[in-house]
Write a structure and sequence with these properties.
The chain is of the alpha/beta class and 323 residues long. The strands form two sheets. A nine-stranded mixed β-sheet has the order 1-3-5-7-8-6-9-10-11, sandwiched between helices. It has a two-stranded antiparallel ribbon with strand order 2-4. Strand 9, helix 6 and strand 10 form a beta-alpha-beta unit. Helix 3 packs parallel to helix 5. The longest helix is centred in the C-terminal third of the chain and has 21 residues. The radius of gyration is 20 Å and the shape is globular. 37% of the residues are buried. The N terminus is likely disordered.
């Protein structure tokens, strides 16, 4: 196999290929001086050993499970005043996992770090949400369905793995066959096998009706024990379609209730816009990043995160009823 390194920079791309040699099962990378590197890997389990010494995506100390009584500074944030995701200069490396063997290897190498995954229908704003959160153009935002064709593990500042999942088929049924045959099993494998996965952010265009496929998908995810946070994207479009502020608020409430009712969703939801010039967009980013900090700071796993989200949802519902 050949390991291709693609550097994203203003000047273009650089590639590097190792020489063939004895077989090695570990996925390893050069540490790049640039803050962002996209790394497509093919059949990582049978990759040739490179002629030069390489480093793993995550160091062995970070990848190893934490010892009992040991609080990792990467997980707790102790000794580091910085946020997990910064406002600029985020160091992000992307590992593309298009097949189950590569995905299992990626999960193994990042097992010592918390994971948060992002899912959603094609063209619902999933990739734009990731790019806006990280302040980088990493995820493939496009009007063409099916741009994300693998589970992309994004190592953020060596403290968090943000996983970009392939998009569900949109209502025009594009890439539905690929979803059923390849991507859905890959996503199910990731949700089932990734123990450090804390929660799923599900991006849904607030103006869209919920399809049976989306409803079934989220029911299966929640039944697996993975908590879901509903992110209602493209919230700024409501203002564009409303005549004034009161009608905008009424329409937002009506659409939100329709989505939650159709999904039978009782959890926590956020309104989100990637239009950074809007105060609501900046506020939404801060709120969502704050929630991610809280989720990955939980000492336990999915069950503790589920309790945290239920408490937040109940508190938010209580405030709404008072208003």
């Amino acid at each position: 196999g050949i390991l291709q390194l693609a550097r994203r920079s203003a000047s273009g791309y650089g590639q590097e290929s190792p020489k063939h040699g004895a077989q090695d099962a570990s996925m390893v990378l050069h540490r790049q001086s640039l803050p962002t590197t996209r790394v497509p890997l093919l059949f990582a389990l049978s990759m040739a050993r490179p002629a030069v010494r390489r480093q793993r995506l995550v160091s062995a100390a970070m990848a190893a499970p934490a010892r009992e009584g040991y609080a990792s500074p990467f997980l707790s944030g102790k000794g580091n005043d910085d946020f997990v995701v910064r406002n600029d200069r985020n160091d992000v490396r992307v590992l593309q996992c298009p097949t189950p063997p590569v995905l299992r290897q990626g999960i193994a190498e990042t097992a010592g770090l918390p994971h948060i995954c992002v899912a959603g229908e094609s063209n619902a704003g999933k990739s734009s949400l990731i790019n806006h959160l990280l302040k980088k153009k990493l995820a493939k935002a496009s009007s063409v369905a099916g741009k994300t064709r693998s589970v992309d593990l994004m190592l953020v500042n060596e403290r968090l793995v943000l996983a970009d999942l392939p998009g569900l088929p949109s209502r025009d049924h594009q890439v539905e066959r690929l979803w059923r045959s390849t991507w859905e099993p890959l996503v199910a494998s990731y949700v089932r096998e990734c123990e450090p996965l804390r929660a799923m952010l599900y991006a849904h265009d607030i103006r869209w009706k919920v399809t049976p496929l989306v409803r079934s998908f989220l029911q299966d995810v929640q039944a697996s024990g993975l908590p879901v946070v509903l992110v209602l994207t493209k919230d700024d479009r409501i203002a564009d379609e409303a005549d004034d502020r009161p009608s905008e608020a009424r329409r937002r409430l009506k659409l939100t209730q329709a989505v939650r009712r159709s999904l039978d969703f009782r959890g926590l939801h956020f309104h989100y816009s990637t239009e950074s010039s809007l105060p609501s967009s900046r506020r939404g980013r801060r709120q969502l990043l704050s929630l991610i900090e809280d989720l990955i700071g939980e000492p336990g796993g999915r069950e503790e995160c589920r309790r945290l989200l239920e408490a937040r949802a109940a508190k938010k519902q209580g405030r709404a009823e008072q208003d």
